[in-house]
Amino acid sequence: MIQPFILAWKKPFDFKGKTSRKDFWLYELATFLLLIVINVIQNLITNLQYASLGSDNLLSEIFAVIGQSISILSFFFILGSLIVGLSISVRRLRDISKKWTWIFIQLIPLLGNIYFYLYLMTRPSKFKQKKNEELMEEKSLKEKLADIKELFDKKLISEDEYKN
Fold it and tell me: Residue 124 class from Cβ within 10 Å (0-12 exposed, 13-18 middle, 19+ buried)?
């Protein structure tokens, strides 16, 4: 779970590659858990600050500074997560053979996010993979010559073209 998270943070502006389903969801899980931990720590510090208000003013000030520092760090983490989340979502869309513009479906309130995340759970398109494999597969010289002979037999090419 840590490796996909670190890998996603290493390439926040890479919109050209692809991301597997496993890496995408492990990144999402790690981000979610980290946000929960940050939130719990922030709430704990805030509660300790209010609990120490009556007894010691210095202790209350220390907890206030720590709480504000955690708030600032969590803001920058959330801001960075938005950028990394955008790039990893685009890479995941590329993996399932969809255009990056599908990311805008999230602008539809509630249903857009649900549809988008369900869509990202799909595997890469097998039809497109097969089509790409067929295009990549080269014909052998024997097959190419057989095709040319067939064209000559149907009198679609001249004898000089056939010999060449």
Answer: middle
